């Protein structure tokens, strides 16, 4: 249900500019009791149990798609569900964590331009615009807004689907506030 609600409000996004990133969320001790559930999206890291929220936002910093994974999961490995939503002909901004040939190929197959800074060990160079890359701060601002919500800044939910539903509900509120009429 929350998937459809976020999809309905995010239909207004134009898709010229999209950004992808992730942010780690610490799991509260009371939210970490479902050990038998393989879909709980909790992973061990140096800070304890964490969950990662992967987001695709538009050129205004409004979320288009959200996805959860374990805290230690690699960003580029978890990008596939979000890449399916990237519209044709858009500019795709990401940080170095998403610099892989597979991601670049998927984005370019959709007729989009992948503006990702190359990793230091990359042998082949790619076109990169540092001017466009400055707009990536919009996704960081989205995560800043998301973490102002106490229940999302720390994961209290035991089930991943409940936590993702809360994140999608919050994202829907951002879309409604951005498109609210002042008249």
Element string (H = helix, E = strand) = HEEEEHEHEHHHEH
Spatial separation of the terminal alpha carbons = 30 Å
> Which shape, going by the Cα principal axes?
globular
- Which CATH top level class fits? Alpha Beta
| Helix proportion | 25-40%
How would you sum up the major sheet?
A: 7 strands, mixed
Q: In total, how many domains does the architecture comprise?
A: 1
Q: What is the third-level CATH name, the topology?
A: Nucleotidyltransferase, domain 5
Percent strand equals: 15-25%
**CATH H-tier superfamily:** Ribonuclease H-like superfamily/Ribonuclease H
Write down the overall mean pLDDT. Answer: 86
Q: Helical element count?
A: 7
Radius of gyration: 17 Å
> Could you list the spans in which at least 5 consecutive residues all have pLDDT below 50?
none
The structural class is alpha/beta
The CATH level-2 architecture is identified as: 2-Layer Sandwich
State the total count of DSSP E strands: 7
């Amino acid at each position: 249900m929350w998937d459809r609600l976020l999809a309905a409000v995010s239909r207004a996004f134009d898709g010229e500019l999209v950004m992808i990133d992730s942010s780690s969320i610490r799991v509260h001790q009371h939210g970490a009791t479902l050990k038998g559930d393989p879909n709980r999206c909790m992973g061990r890291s140096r800070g304890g149990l964490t969950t990662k929220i992967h987001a695709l936002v538009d050129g205004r910093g409004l979320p288009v798609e959200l996805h959860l994974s374990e805290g230690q999961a690699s960003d580029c490995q978890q990008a596939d569900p979000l890449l399916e939503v990237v519209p044709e002909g858009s500019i795709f901004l990401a940080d170095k964590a998403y610099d892989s040939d597979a991601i670049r190929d998927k984005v370019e197959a959709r007729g989009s331009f992948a503006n990702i800074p190359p990793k230091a060990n990359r042998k082949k160079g790619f076109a990169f615009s540092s001017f466009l890359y400055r707009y990536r701060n919009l996704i960081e601002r989205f995560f800043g807004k998301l973490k102002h919500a106490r229940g999302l800044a720390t994961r209290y939910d035991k089930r991943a689907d409940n936590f993702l539903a809360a994140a999608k509900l919050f994202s829907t509120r951002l879309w409604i506030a951005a498109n609210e009429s002042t008249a």
